[in-house]
Write a structure and sequence with these properties.
heterodimer, A: alpha+beta, five-stranded mixed β-sheet, 1 helix, B: alpha+beta, six-stranded mixed β-sheet, four-stranded mixed β-sheet, 25 helices, 17 strands
Chain lengths: 82, 628
């Protein structure tokens, strides 16, 4: 299924903005991220997944949340800033 | 004594008297420096209930042992005073070059009391002290003032000074240095202004004695190795993009304030809108980096931002807090106006957090018909109106028209107009910084009950715990985590380190302080040192008569109301339970008063015990105490 990924991660400038991705039907957030990272050769970035926040649409999601066709998944880092 | 110059300077501006005292080594061991030492001195020297703008009121400029030693990240000093906003303890933390310069001029701290009849500056030249006329500086902006000081005293002279906002006793005015570094919060600029003190100028070449230079150098190497290793991501992000590196994400996660804390980024200020203002969005206009003294990160930058409305050449990059308070908080996507508002705050000497928040409050009042355009000098302060934001900020900076009221901050403005209280977002009168406590719920206790309410640079659980909508929060055990976090931040700040630097090799602050000072602290002693500092700041408030019930916060700190959308929709933080846990772990009574055992265990708090802890009742049958 196709989903949209929107990264708001200052440490991942190479994927800033909206990305389209093809992931397995019924994939969870974690599975979708793993598949996408493998495709983009960003496996190292996965280490920080638990430190991220996810939104599907405007609603919070967990790593285990199941995605639907056409969902927009937003990935955000929790950061301090002065 | 290592790590210290061993001298404290006391200046009375009413009499013109100056006094140099030796720094007591036990005080240095017990309170370290910065606001720890500052709290000890002000508690001892400043009478309770002093008018913050009166003769007895004191303001201190206090370095930490790390300043001037070459310890990486060790360039921050503290301004300490009684806040004219909260009526309680105030400290504000600042980088740049002034802290190390003050030590090189021969002093660990300068404490000023009294009120001068005319504008003056304190000039410290390699140990010598002179109160100099500053009539020619009064009324000048911070940049103009620094230029005159540099012409008169040379490039080596560094100054902590106020702009017109501080002179006008604006309650949101800052103490500034290096053009764009601000000890911003709690109204410290106004306290300096009330004394007619335009600047403290320090010049000198004295060396700070260091106990173990090899260990200091090894620690510095460990810091640099960390930045290339486990901390590379952090260093790359903040080194390249500064504190605003995560601005876009923060607006969407529910961290940044949106629409005077009544909105949500995902609905009202989406990523597409936030992106051009974030550090990455403006990066192509960057002309160079800026770093505070001894900082290997350099989270500052200058930009030539193109504008036909304002001269934005060589503008400092807005910090994250400023992007939030003049950007998302106002639904402002006019990037030029954020740069210009930031420049105005720097030049007039305003705290950008409170200034932006004050504009946000006025904006929500205007949008809801509570304040009219007439009451705002004809300015139509609609959400996102960049030109109007700049116009109103300039009035605040100059203290002109409606700016005379708004320069007092949101609480005083609402009280003056007698309306708009429902749109206040304040903790004991201090506006909320740009990390939402409904997301990072650990911040809630800090914002409400730190001796300096409403601060993002004070410790506790902070942003380490987050609360997203629909997920429950477990408040069990928060007290000890909160106390431990608070103590550690006290140590970082009081030592003169930047909090970004503490995000380095494990235990680096303690290692550096031991190398610099030669003091040795066991782990429990180190924790006690942090707690002693915290409790001394708290003692200042207790002696002022402040108790838990006096530390009130606006509802938007802890509660979301429909139609709030996004990651924190529906969140209600149990702020009183967080406080109960913290007070218990601290060993305080539930009203915030000290309990004797905790204070006695800490040690070094004899005067506080004598002042605030009633003596135990005599045993039954004991003779009545003798009267002198």
């Amino acid at each position: 299924m196709r989903i949209r990924l929107r990264f708001a991660c200052a440490d991942l400038p190479e994927v800033s903005g909206i990305q389209e991705a093809e992931v397995s039907d019924g994939a969870t957030v974690e599975q979708a991220m793993t598949e996408y990272a493998r495709l983009r050769r960003m496996e190292d970035s996965l280490e920080k997944l638990p430190e991220s926040m996810f939104l599907i649409g405007k609603k919070p999601a967990l790593l285990a949340t199941v995605l639907q066709e056409g969902d927009e998944l937003m990935i955000m880092r929790i950061l301090h800033g002065g | 004594m290592f790590g210290y110059m061993g001298k404290l300077l006391f200046v009375n501006l009413s009499t013109g008297a100056t006094e140099v005292r030796d720094l007591d080594e036990q005080d240095a061991r017990n309170f370290l420096g910065g606001y720890g030492l500052g709290a000890k001195i002000l508690y001892d020297e400043m009478p309770a209930k002093a008018d913050p703008f009166g003769e007895d009121s004191m303001i201190g400029f206090v370095t930490g042992p790390a300043n001037g030693t070459g310890a990486l990240y060790g360039g921050r000093f503290m301004v300490v005073n009684k806040s004219p906003v909260t009526g309680g303890w105030n400290d504000a933390n600042c980088g740049g070059d002034f802290g190390p310069a003050l030590k090189k001029a021969g002093y660990d701290a300068v404490f000023v009391k009294g009120v001068s009849k005319k504008p003056v500056a304190i000039f410290i030249d390699d140990g010598k002290v002179e109160i100099v006329d500053a009539a020619d500086l009064w009324g000048k902006t911070t940049l103009q003032t620094e230029k005159v000081i540099e012409e008169k005293y040379g490039k080596k002279a560094k100054s902590a000074l106020i702009g017109p906002a501080g002179e006008n006793l604006s309650l949101i005015s800052a103490v500034m240095n290096d053009g764009h570094r601000a000890a911003g919060r709690g109204g410290c600029g106004a306290v300096m202004g009330s004394k007619k003190l335009k600047a403290v100028i320090a010049r000198g070449d004295q060396a700070v004695p260091i106990c173990d230079k090899d260990a200091l150098n090894a620690n510095n190497k460990a810091v640099l190795d960390f930045m290339k290793g486990p901390g590379a991501g952090f260093a790359g992000m903040f080194g390249n993009f500064g504190t605003g590196a995560g601005f876009v994400g923060s607006t969407q996660s529910g961290d940044s304030g949106v629409k005077n804390w009544g909105g949500a980024g995902v609905a009202d200020y989406p990523a597409d809108v936030a992106t051009p203002l974030g550090s990455q969005g403006i990066d192509n206009t960057k002309t160079g980096k800026y770093a505070c003294a001894n900082c290997p990160l350099g989270c500052g930058a200058f930009h030539d931002y193109p504008s036909e409305r304002w001269d934005l050449k060589h503008s400092p990059r807005p910090e994250y807090e400023t992007m939030g308070s003049f950007g998302s908080l106002l639904l402002n996507k006019d990037v030029e106006s954020v740069f210009q508002a930031n420049n105005l705050c720097n030049e007039y000497g305003l705290d950008t957090i409170s200034a932006g928040s004050t504009v946000a409050w006025a904006m929500e009042c205007f949008e809801n018909g509570v304040l009219s355009a007439d009451e705002l000098d004809g300015i139509k302060l609609n959400w996102g109106a960049g030109d109007a934001i700049v116009a109103i900020t300039e009035k605040i900076g100059k203290g002109e028209g409606c700016g005379k009221i708004l320069m007092l901050g949101t609480q005083a403005a609402a009280d003056h107009y007698g309306k708009g209280h429902e749109y206040l977002v304040v903790a004991r009168g201090i506006e909320e910084p740009q990390h939402d406590s409904r997301l990072g719920y650990g911040l809630m206790r800090v914002y409400q009950y730190d001796p300096t309410p409403g601060r993002h640079v004070k410790g506790g659980m902070g942003m380490f715990v987050t609360h997203t909508a629909g997920h429950s929060v477990d408040y069990k055990g928060t007290g000890y985590a909160d106390v431990n976090g608070a103590a550690n931040t006290e140590l970082t700040n009081s030592a003169g380190f930047c909090m970004f630097g503490a995000n380095g090799p494990m235990g680096i602050v303690k290692m550096q302080i031991e190398a610099i000072t030669g003091f040795k602290y066991s782990a429990p002693e180190w924790l006690a040192l942090g707690l002693r500092i915290y409790n001394m700041r708290h003692a200042f408030n207790l002696r002022e008569g402040l108790r838990r019930k006096d530390f009130t916060v606006s509802e938007r700190f802890y509660k979301t109301n429909p139609p709030h959308e996004g990651p924190i929709a529906g969140n209600n933080v149990d702020h009183e339970l967080l406080a109960d846990n913290f007070f218990n772990a601290m060993g305080w009574a539930m009203d915030g008063m000290f309990l004797a055992p905790m204070l006695r265990n800490l040690g070094g708090m004899d005067k506080v015990i004598a002042d605030l802890i009633p003596p135990p009742p005599p045993p039954p049958g004991a003779p009545p105490p003798k009267k002198d």
